[in-house]
Amino acid sequence: MQLIEVSPNDIATELLLEADPCVNSIARYLNEQSFCFAAYVPTTETAVGACIVDKKAAHSVEIMNISIAPQHQKLGIGTALLNFVLEQLKAKGVTRVELGTGTFGHQLSYYQRCGFRVDAVIKDHFIDNYDQPIFENGIQHQDMLRLYIEL
Q1: Which residue spans within the chain are E strands per DSSP?
Q2: What is the pLDDT of residues 74-97, one digit of tens each?
Q3: From CA 48, how far away is CA 12, in angstroms rounded?
Q4: Which phi and psi angles does 25 have, rounded to 5°?
Q5: Which pairs with CB-CB distance under 8 Å and at least 24 residues apart come from 4-11?
């Protein structure tokens, strides 16, 4: 597997839609100021994983999207990509990484296993900011958890 920092133009929107179902939302954070990272496996020419990071302050960033193509999930690619991203960000002088996720589901336990901790709850985030309701395991996402990790 190859993990590298790439240009925003190298990331397919279709891949990012795996983690964020709103094309307009993706367009807002996928830009030239973003840090973009990708995972490639030997059998593919396109990225099978991507992580988009937005700078918040001098030493603080937010992971806006981390996506793995469905056929490559549950193989450790996401964890390897996230660990690579955290190492690269630390080398750039970042000391705090934040992200937002739903209040339940596999994503929450994934981030907690990687060392992220809960910082805050944003009530009705998914209701107020998405045109269509987002369901997981038959439950509608409503509130967002803000998570962070200190590097």
Answers
A1: 2-6, 35-40, 49-57, 60-68, 96-102, 117-122, 135-136, 139-140, 144-150
A2: 999 999 999 999 999 999 999 999
A3: 10
A4: -65, -45
A5: 4/37, 4/38, 4/40, 5/35, 5/36, 5/37, 5/88, 6/36, 6/37, 6/38, 6/47, 7/36, 8/32, 8/34, 8/36, 8/52, 10/36, 10/38, 10/47, 11/36, 11/38, 11/47, 11/50, 11/52
Q: How far apart are CA 7 and CA 4, in angstroms?
A: 10
Instruction: Please say whether the beta carbons of 23 and 16 come within 8 A.
Output: no
Structural domains in the chain, CATH included, are 2-150 (3.40.630.30)
In the structure encoding, which two tokens stand for residue 56, read together? Answer: 């918040």
- From 89, 26, 21, select the one nearest 55 (Cα to Cα): 89
Structure tokens at 82: 């996230």
Cα–Cα distance between 60 and 106 in angstroms, integer?
25
pLDDT in tens, 7-51: 998 999 999 999 998 899 899 999 888 999 999 998 888 999 999
